[in-house]
Amino acid sequence: MERISRQSPGLSRRRNYRRLVAPAYKGISGGYDVGYGVYDIFDLGEFDQKGSVRTKYGTKDEYLNAIKTAQKAGVQVYADVVFNHKLGADLPEKAQAIPMDPGDRHRPIGEMQDVEVYTHFTFPGRAGQYSTMEWHWWHFDSVDYNIYDTDSNAIYLFKDKQFDQGVDLEKGSFDYLMGCDLDMQHPEVQGELKYWGEWFADMTNIDGVRFDAVKHVEAGFFPQWLNHVREHTGKPMFAVGEYWSDHIEALHHFIKVTGGNVALFDAPLHYNFTEAGKSGNNFDMRRIFEGTLVKQQPALAVTLVENHDSQPLQSLESVVEGWFKPLAYALILLRQEGYPCIFYADYYGAHYKDRGKDGQEYEIWMDSHQWIIDKFLEARRDFGFGEQHDYFDHANCIGWTRLGDEEHPGSMVVVLSNGDAGFKSMETGQPNRKFVDITEHIEEPIVTDDEGWAEFPCQAGSVSVWVSQ
Ligand code: CA
Question: CATH 3.90.1300.10: does it fit domain 86-182?
Fold first, then answer.
């Protein structure tokens, strides 16, 4: 659940905000499932399955109304879509499979054997409405649960199946993540997902999608599916994939295989923010965009500071320190490159309890940065235009300018420091002009000289955004 806005060149500027929502279909835990434990993709909170009619987020009608209301308010909606796995099969069935080493997916750790597995999905509560397809073991490549050997931690690869090739290479092949792993080569699986895409787009009128866990799914399927749904709806259908890896080459490879159809979250940038936050003034701010997608492939980079997996106690915990968050948000919201994504909990704050890796329960408070994020959004809306000039010339204090264009003649100057209070001499294109710091960190205005230059200050470990008056 992130709110995102974009102003990247080549992308529509008709509307400023898009909202990403979690998977809205029925998961294995029914009304409590966050949505990633995918059970039935045709049940948007409509059928009595897995203990409830509603999903965690409400009934189908409430879901459709929420989308409509957001769109009426000028917000486009992107839906979270999980193609990797299914969970919560209705019936077990017998098959043959070979147990593989979970740490090295190419290494068998036993003979081909009879197994009994939960892979038969009949969806009794839906009773064939919208789709009559039942899923069987042969629609999947692998599972990790065998009724005959419940102590085993093996991944069972079904007879005559292979792990998908176009996936991340961690663990030999990172095709398998959880549950029943879809066989993306199977024509009935491909056909059903394409049919579902038409059905889902017609039913919900969504504007785009977020593909979950794309590094575990045959990459070549995404452009096929997208182009199918684009053709059906006649809509451009923006798509962003969650390829959570700080290996920039893996991201480039995915972009190549998918023909540039799918943008990616800039995980390497997030990791730079995490490192910078932890390192204080030891981090060289001139390197903040080093090895990131937004630097190397800006048109396909969805930039973010934090998300629901990196936040405290979550599966990929790598928290960006609170003091650094305003700097990080300035770096994604006030620059030309990238399609920025704001994390709900950074904006509204969050308070929750969860278990850590040590099994202990912890209570977490995440601060709301709403006030300063709103300031940045206003600056982006009014001043995020025209030429951008970087002054990345000091390890602790960097800055940049946006010089405006014909329609937006104002200038914006951003200066930030991860060390002591500092200043930077920058050229604004606005001679003898007064600038004020909209973050209110520094009250005294600055006036540029006859050539449009001035020394723009910021406080220690802080960011100031100076805009022309
Ligand atoms: Ca997979």
Answer: no
Residue span(s) of the chain under CATH 2.40.30.140 come to 86-182
Instruction: Give residue 20's pLDDT.
Output: 64
Report the distance separating Cα 312 and Cα 318, nearest Å: 7
In DSSP terms, which residues pair with 355 in a beta bridge? 361
Distance from residue 83's CA to the centre of ligand 1 (Å):
8
Q: Where, residue-wise, is CATH 2.60.40.1180 in the chain?
A: 386-468
> For residue 35, what are its two tokens?
């949505």
User: Do 298 and 382 touch, CB atoms closer than 8 A?
Assistant: no
Give the separation between CA 180 and CA 117, rounded to whole angstroms: 9
**Residues 378 and 421 sit within 8 Å (Cβ to Cβ):** no
Q: What is the DSSP letter of 14?
A: S
Q: Report the separation in Å between the CA atom of 75 and the middle of ligand 1, taken as the mean of its atom positions.
A: 32
Angle, CA 56 vertex, CA 135 and CA 80 arms, to 5°: 65
In the DSSP assignment, the letter for residue 82 is: -
The 10s digit of each residue's pLDDT in 251-296 is 999 999 999 999 999 999 999 999 999 999 999 999 999 999 999 9
> pLDDT value at position 17?
61
SS3 content of the chain, % helix, strand, coil (to 5): 25, 30, 45
Report the catalytic residues: 212, 242
Taking the centre of ligand 1 as the mean of its atom positions, its distance from the CA of residue 267, in whole angstroms, is 20
Whether pLDDT at 309 is above 60:
yes
Report the CATH number of the 386-468 domain. 2.60.40.1180
Buried b (16+ CB within 10 A) or exposed e, 111-131: eeeebebbbbbebebbeeebe
**Could you tell me if 272 and 237 are in contact, meaning their C-beta atoms sit under 8 angstroms apart?**
no
Report the pLDDT value the prediction gives residue 364, as an integer from 0 to 100.
87
**What CATH topology corresponds to 2-84+187-376?**
TIM Barrel (3.20.20)
